[in-house]
Design a protein that fits this description.
The complex is a heterodimer of chains A (409) and B (80). With 409 residues, chain A is of the alpha/beta class. The radius of gyration of chain A is 21 Å and the shape is globular. Helices cover 27% and strands 25% of the residues of chain A. Chain A folds into 2 domains: 177 residues, FAD/NAD(P)-binding domain; 153 residues, D-Amino Acid Oxidase, subunit A, domain 2 (D-Amino Acid Oxidase, Chain A, domain 2). The longest helix of chain A has 16 residues. In chain B, a hairpin with a 7-residue loop joins strand 4 and strand 5. A 4-stranded antiparallel β-sheet of chain B has the order 3-4-5-6, with no helix packed on it. At the A-B interface, helix 7 and helix 10 of A face strand 3 and helix 1 of B.
Chain lengths: 409, 80
């Protein structure tokens, strides 16, 4: 077991909240990871600095603050492998790029197989990953046990471990550092970061959105970019567009601080829990969404209870750990569990949307920031986002990661 | 934990129920007459409001009946 890495001090939050001006070339709605990364890349790579990021709460206080920080690219389909592997490559150089620590720790991710169909699916995904140039391996139960000694790989559990896929380059990062790194870099390039600024409506004239109404005044916009994750459907409704997304509560929790016992990420879809141990020592765990739609940022206790039962089944030693904190975020889930990225023509010629990442948006942050900004700057979808156009639900060209990448992200 | 009012059995824990999503989404009377856009709308698009919402639940652990309730998706307050 590696010793726990020393935690650096929090990076300073070197930006000033802006008073919104009357007009911008680009108004980005949503100051989470994707909105901030998009703003950064617009400014850094395309010279578009007359940009405002408007956020109804505080920066990166939504799902960016509520996810379990798992980063991986071992998705089944080519389109998914494309965007997530692009993101993983950028994660590997993000600290140099932003000039700030993000604690990206490539400790690998195990996706456990508990039955014959899991084994078949896992091996198929490993083969697909390797064809896409992604590091993926199939491990036997003994090899899994070596990587995660606290995991019970015996025949005892109700759902024994029959093997696992392993992606060594996967890992975790410190979510706040990532958000603050993007915020500071964008701010230094001249982007206005406007928090406590809720969008209340849009003015649509001549097939365009000309201005955005907010709780801090009216803002004229050359281009409007929506990066609102769990509240995308609510925003789109204000633009007269119905999106194929359903917003669910997704819960996660941490234990008290413990000695380091797990230095890889373990995911199980059949038993249904995913676990990593944070640098400070908390066990960070998540599972599936609450079944009903909801915006209350809280979920039902029985969902947490089932998730803990799964964790204890896999890791008997966890039975003695105590839960420190539970929370929920609101995730926008699409029918094929893949995101919606592209122009939102039904709302206006100058409107772009990035939503539907559901339970798995954090890992994509650097990748989508890069290619979404490129799409907006050039007025056409980048090759890596083109498959994610809203039109796929009409054409039937879905990217079905529901069974493939599994429920848990 | 939501408490769901079953019209037949009374108020019970959410764990006894299966969620059915938005109410009032009828199978198209003439599916073959729908164009791709209308078919996609029927298949994939459901309301997702941060507001009162009329939705279906099935009491799978007891009477096995489907029914409709109104629930506020922010407060989770329920009206039978």
């Amino acid at each position: 077991m590696k010793p726990a890495p020393r935690l650096p001090e929090h990076p300073p939050r070197l930006w000033k909240d802006a008073e919104p001006r009357k007009a911008y070339d680009v108004v980005i709605v949503g100051g989470g990871g994707h909105g901030l990364a998009t703003a950064y890349h617009l400014a850094a790579d395309h010279g578009i600095t007359n940009v405002a990021v408007v956020e109804k709460g505080w920066l990166a206080g939504g799902n960016m603050a509520r996810n379990t920080t798992i980063i991986r690219s071992n998705y089944l389909w080519d389109a998914s492998a494309g965007i997530y592997e692009h993101a993983l490559g950028l994660w590997e150089t993000l600290e140099e790029r932003l000039g700030t620590t993000v604690m990206f720790d490539q400790r690998g991710v195990l996706n456990l197989a508990h039955n014959l169909s899991d084994v078949r699916e896992g091996k198929r995904r490993v083969n697909a990953n390797q064809l896409n140039g992604i590091d993926a391996h199939w491990l036997t139960p003994a090899e899994v046990g070596k990587l995660a000694p606290v995991l019970d790989v015996s025949e005892r559990p109700r759902h024994p471990v029959h093997g696992a896929t392993f992606q060594p380059r996967a890992g975790i990062a410190k979510h706040d550092y990532v958000a603050w790194g993007y915020a500071r870099a964008a701010y230094e390039l001249g982007v206005d970061l406007v928090s406590d600024c809720e969008v209340t409506g849009f003015t649509q004239t001549g097939g365009r959105v000309t201005s955005v109404s907010t709780t801090r005044g009216e803002i004229s916009a050359g281009t409007v970019v929506l990066c609102a994750a769990g509240h995308s459907a609510v925003l789109a409704e204000k633009l007269g567009v119905r999106l194929p997304v359903q917003s669910h509560p997704l819960q996660a929790l941490v234990s008290e601080l413990l000695e380091q016992v797990l230095d890889t990420v373990v995911m199980s879809n059949a038993v249904h829990v995913y676990v990593s141990q944070a640098h400070k020592g908390e066990l960070v765990m998540g599972a599936g969404v609450d079944p009903h739609i909801g915006y209350g940022r809280r979920g039902s206790f029985h969902v947490v209870e089932e998730q803990m039962a799964a964790a204890v089944e896999l890791f008997p030693i966890f039975a003695r750990a105590h839960v420190l904190r539970t929370w929920a975020g609101i995730v926008d889930v699409t029918p094929d569990a893949s995101p919606i990225v592209g122009p939102l023509d039904a709302a206006g010629d100058n409107v772009w949307i990035n939503c539907g990442w559901g339970t798995g948006g954090f890992k994509a942050t650097p990748g989508i920031g890069d290619v979404f900004a490129d799409s907006v700057a050039h007025g056409r979808a980048h090759d890596l986002v083109a498959p994610y156009a809203l039109e796929r639900f009409t054409t039937g060209r879905l990217i079905d990661e529901h069974g493939a990448a599994a429920v848990a992200h | 934990m939501l408490r769901i009012p079953c019209p037949h059995c009374g108020e019970r824990d959410e764990t006894e129920f299966h969620y059915g999503g938005e109410a009032g989404v009828d199978y198209p009377a003439e599916p073959a007459a729908l164009d791709d856009v209308a078919w996609a709308e029927y298949l994939f698009v459901r309301a997702d409001p941060a507001d009162w919402f009329t939705e279906r639940w099935c009491h799978v652990s007891a009477c096995r009946q489907w029914f409709t309730i109104d629930r506020h998706t922010v407060s989770d307050e329920v009206r039978a």
